């Protein structure tokens, strides 16, 4: 059972993560970006690599998932701003792995999805939404590099979305219509559909690129000469 000090520490960590995320969204400077870029590998290693286990007491499980969601949300917000290309993504993966086995973002995100999709609760739903946000960023960064792990992640997200559909419907009805959480674009189902459509678009772009004829320099010179003397 957690001591009072441990419970207070967790609450403070959750509050600090939420405050830091809101500040970073609203007031972004170059110095902040550099600092966030340095802390991101440590934060993601804590969330994605180190084990997170449910506590035996139900009330403590809720605290754990709130803490996990707060740290994950902060990580994704930083990720969306500082990881802007595939090279950044590859470097981040190496920093997280720290010389260990190759790190797969899609594989780790799939684990998060599967761990939070069996039971429909508000905290699990929030984690799934945040994970889908990161998946969308990942698809954009991967470009045409759509592998089996990314396809598998999307399949897991689609199943999770179906499992959470009724739960999210109840939550929407219970909240004020002025709340941003009732915006259809913020629903898990809508986020997953956005990710799926983006994935299909990237796959099509990659396919089109692979079927586009490649003109060699020799052919280009020959065509140019022919056009001059024709």
Report on the structure:
By secondary structure, the chain is mainly α. The chain has one domain. The chain is 77% helix and 0% strand. The protein contains 9 helices and no strands. The chain has helices at residues 4-26, 30-49, 58-82, 86-97, 105-115, 122-142, 148-174, 188-211, 217-229. Mean pLDDT is 82; it is low at 55-63.
Helix fraction, binned, reads: over 70%
What is the terminal separation in angstroms? Answer: 87 Å
Any low-confidence stretches, pLDDT <50, length ≥5?
55-63
Q: SSE order, as H and E?
A: HHHHHHHHH
Largest β-sheet summary: none
Query: Treating each run of at least 4 consecutive H or I residues as one helix, how many helices?
Result: 9
Mean of pLDDT: 82
Q: What structural class do helix, strand and pairing data support? A: mainly alpha
What is the percentage of strand-forming residues?
A: under 5%
Total strands? 0
Keywords: Coiled coil
Give a quick summary of the entry.
The protein is an all-alpha fold. The chain is 77% helix and 0% strand. It has one domain.
Give structural attributes.
coiled coil
